Amino acid sequence: MANLPHPIQYQGSKRNLASDILRFLPNKIGRLVEPFSGTAAISIAAAARQVSQKFWINDLNLPLIKLLELIIEQPDKIAYLYTKIWNEQHGNSVEHYYKIRDEFNKTNDPFLFLYLLSRCVKGSVRYNSDGLFNQSPDKRRKGTRPEKMRQNIEGVSHLLKNKCLFTALDYKDVLAKVDNTDFVYMDPPYQGVCGNRDSRYCSGTSFDEFVSAIEVLNRKAIKFAISYDGKRGNKIFGKKLPEYLGLKKIQIEVGRSSQATLLGKQEITVESLYLSPTLLRDCSPEIENYILGFPKQLTLL
């Protein structure tokens, strides 16, 4: 999974956890739905494993969705324009970055967004209270080289072209339209990290509203999985989902925290994955055996 193409380096992406998460998906599904798609890491991984031939990629971040659509449906165009913008930075790359950022904040042009995501600090998307992208450039690097970016863009397009629905809806509107032929993977912002607002988004996700949405999915017998809370060392991120929802919680060890290591600490980052009752009830023998015989880096709760 680490070798899969990913044009967008995006902090919080589930790229490195995709293989663990995919173990709990059915072998074949009618459509994979990501209401909080981010960079669509799970859809890319599922397409590579041929789990599904249909995908619904949704995120409230409209420029991000438009960018993903360009990458998947118009790879040559976005690769060409990325190369053009990247090559223009060599006079004064920091000044160039801020110029592109100002223009993006005026236009929300997805062609500009790809360069910003490639060049910004730690691939970390941040918005201010006015909804403007305000992340600084990484002064140690100039972003993904055009030849590598084209390779990644073409790789993702090959996997997903003509297979996707792209929307920028509220997640509740997406969940209202799914049925029991779909599999829904959700990776909402950590409620415990950001309270009512996450700086990666123009608005936050209410914990109570999210729980109510899960109750509706349960009543509709939808198969789903949720990445939600987690912890680093003894510090817990996010509020646990209620037990009455009937979800099976699995903790996946991500690895040592690079931030903690810099501070001389040896802290392990762990993320939680919740599996829906319908998924557990109708799971294949392979999934059931995996849950019962989970490896050491996974903890079943």
Strand-helix topology:
Layout: H1 18-22, E1 31-34, H2 41-48, E2 55-58, H3 62-73, H4 75-87, H5 93-107, H6 110-119, H7 146-160, E3 164-167, H8 171-175, E4 182-186, H9 191-194, H10 207-219, E5 223-232, E6 235-237, E7 248-256, H11 258-262, E8 268-275, H12 277-281, H13 285-292, E9 298-300
Parallel strand pairs: 1-2, 1-4, 2-3, 4-5
Antiparallel strand pairs: 5-6, 5-8, 7-8, 7-9
What brief labels describe this structure?
17% strand, 39% helix, 301 residues, alpha/beta
How would you portray this structure in words?
There is one protein chain. The chain has 301 residues and is α/β, with parallel strands linked by helices. The chain is built from 13 helices and 9 strands. Strands 1, 2, 3, 4, 5, 6, 7, 8 and 9 form a 9-stranded mixed beta sheet that branches. Strand 1 (31-34), helix 2 and strand 2 (55-58) form a beta-alpha-beta unit.
Shape descriptor reads globular
Structural class call reads: alpha/beta
Number of strands: 9
Strand content: 15-25%
- The first-to-last residue Cα distance is 26 Å
Alpha-carbon Rg, integer: 19 Å
Compute the number of helices. 13
In round numbers, the mean pLDDT is 86
Low-confidence stretches: 191-202
Helix content: 25-40%
Question: Largest sheet, described in full?
Answer: 9 strands, mixed
The topology string of helices and strands comes to HEHEHHHHHEHEHHEEEHEHHE
